Amino acid sequence: MKQNRLASVDQKDLERARKYIKSLRNPNCREDDVFFQAMEEVLLSIAPLYLSDPKYKENAIVQRLVKPDRIFKFKVEWMDRNNQIQVNTGYRVQFNNALGPYKGGLRFHPSVNEGVLKFLGFEQILKNALTGLPIGGGKGGSDFDPKGKTDFEVMNFCSAYMQELHKYIGPRIDVPAGDIGVGAREIGYLFGQYKKITSSYEGVLTGKPFFFGGSLMRPEATGYGVVYFTEKMLEIEGKKPLEGKVCTVSGSGNVALHAIEKLYALGAVPVTCSDSKGTVYDPRGVDLDLLKELKFEKRVSLEEYAGKHPESQYIPVSEYPKDGHAAWHIPCYAAFPCATQNELSLADAKALVKNGCVSVTEGANMPSTPDAIHYFLESGICFGPAKAANAGGVAVSALEMSQNAQMMRWSFEKVDAELKDIMVHICTNVAQTADEYGVTGNYVDGANIAGFKRVADAMIAEGI
Ligand code: NDP
Questions:
Q1: Domain that holds residue 284
Q2: Angle of helix 392-406 relative to helix 218-236, nearest 10 degrees?
Q3: pLDDT exceeds cutoff 70 at 3
Q4: Does some domain include residue 76?
Q5: Is the distance from CB of 253 to CB of 226 less than 8 angstroms?
Q6: Mean of the per-residue pLDDT values of the chain
Q7: For residue 54, how far is its CA from the centre of ligand 1 (angstroms)?
Q8: How confident is the model over 156-190, as pLDDT tens digits?
Q9: How far is ligand 1, taken at its centre, from the CA of residue 117, in Å?
Q10: Both 248 and 374 in a single domain?
Q11: What is the C-alpha to C-alpha distance for residues 285 and 268, in angstroms, rounded to an integer?
């Protein structure tokens, strides 16, 4: 049985911490719900450290850390294929640059608002700190939906978005990357427009295609990193490796696809993938080539998968279990939520544990609800939280920045070896920190404390 995350903290101090977090919240702003969910998890996690060392309180670190340095919100006007003018909202949240230039992806999705980006930016600060690399935390995006748009429309939107964004970014200031809805195509258009406006060919965005300054392995980095992290976590916790084991994965985007690819490389059998409309369960293992064709070439729904593989099952969202997601009700050894936030509920967590799952690693940002995480920790299964486990993407983004600054290109093998080293280091550091603070095996607290310490110490050293 893992130790409960808050066992070592005085209940009165905890109550005070909860009250403080509540006081920060504007109850009329529902947009901020996910931001407070993320913030609460971190603040309660770091309580043992915060209460044991007065320097954090003396320097008002919590009050300073939960407020972004600045948020840019702007109008994006662009022309669609019918020559109609469309209007969207663009954002960039520059959260904290104590450790280096703001760094974090851009998300293009109709669900994007200021609250979602504050949650992602806040998580990014600690995630980036865990990599050990010199990068601060930020996030951005738009409520623009690239789905169903032509390349021409996506290009028009990206150009218009960059028309405003270029004022706030730079290779030593803020270096955006991709996220949901922003892949190599979007990064290419954004980069092209930045170059046109500034006449400067510089590493201002990461996730660029390789032939104009991208790093090899950036597309694979998050998914591969998630699996490297899991391997190490299983080793530290004395569990069997992934070879020959059935794994379940959600999502069918960049992270899910490459997690599946690496699982196959290690001899595991990933049997599920999903998109926003449904889940595919293929007991013989997901057909990776078909997945790439459907989601990256044709950009269509996974429904077509079952047409090509009649032995597989397609489960539409309307048939998901109550309060749950189909993927987490299929027995597995290790589970990998890799689609989006809050996609793994308490009911899902219970089903996973009941069916014998020994390990859950978060590829997406905050995919598990707080009560699901609590259940995993209480059940004593290995749980790799997003900010540690999916840091491989941003780590390779930082390696892309190094390569751009040096005007160099590293081989696939070199970047892969660096990525593996970084993921092993993150996992070991998180496990050791959890041990040090009396919550052995609790990677949530270990990650929050280790990340917080690095950022907070830099903030103190830099003064106000
Ligand atoms: P993609 O856009 O490539 O893929 C997202 C996947 O999630 C798609 O399968 C999409 O389905 C599905 N999805 C999106 N929104 C929802 C929703 N509301 N309900 C159900 N399914 C949904 O994104 P990525 O793979 O890049 O990112 C996935 C997650 O990983 C995100 O949480 C992101 O923040 C996180 N992440 C990504 C990193 C990266 O390097 N790309 C780095 C670190 C974290 P559909 O095809 O139907 O839209």
A1: 219-389
A2: 130
A3: no
A4: yes
A5: no
A6: 94
A7: 40
A8: 999 999 999 999 999 999 999 999 999 999 999 99
A9: 14
A10: yes
A11: 9
Single residue among 369, 389, 409 that ends a domain in this structure:
389
Per-residue pLDDT, averaged over 84-99, amounts to 98
Q: Does 260 reside within a domain?
A: yes
Tell me how far apart the 2 most distant CA atoms of the chain are, in Å: 63
Query: Are 238 and 306 within one domain?
Result: yes
For the chain, what percentages of helix, strand and coil (3-state, to nearest 5) are there?
50, 15, 35
**Mutation pick for ligand 1 pocket among 228, 255, 294 (CB with most ligand atoms within 8 Å):** 255
Which residues sit with their C-beta closer than 6 Å to ligand 1?
178-181, 222, 251-256, 275-277, 338-340, 363-365, 390, 393
Contact at 8 Å (CB) between 125 and 451? yes
Same domain for 161 and 35? no
> CATH number for the domain including 334?
3.40.50.720
Do 138 and 252 lie in one domain? The reply is no
The pair phi, psi for residue 24, each rounded to 5°, is -80, -15
Q: Which amino acid is at 299?
A: R
Regarding whether 334 and 302 lie in a shared domain, the answer is yes
Residue 390 has a CB neighbour count (10 Å cut-off) of 29
Percent of the chain with pLDDT over 90: 87
Rg (CA), the chain: 21
Of 205, 226, 227, 225, the residue nearest 217 (C-alpha): 225
Known catalytic residues?
139
In a domain, 380, yes or no: yes
pLDDT at 463: 97
- Asked if pLDDT for residue 216 goes beyond 70, the answer is yes
Residue 188 within a domain: yes
Mean pLDDT of 408-421: 96
pLDDT exceeds 70 at position 60:
yes
Domains contained in the chain, number: 3
Beta pairing, strands 102-108 & 85-96: unpaired
Query: Mutate which of 125, 340, 345, 368 to test ligand 1's pocket (most atoms within 8 Å of Cβ)?
Result: 340
Are the beta carbons of 206 and 219 closer than 8 angstroms?
Answer: no
Residues 121 and 186 in one domain: yes
Residue 66: strand pairing partners: none
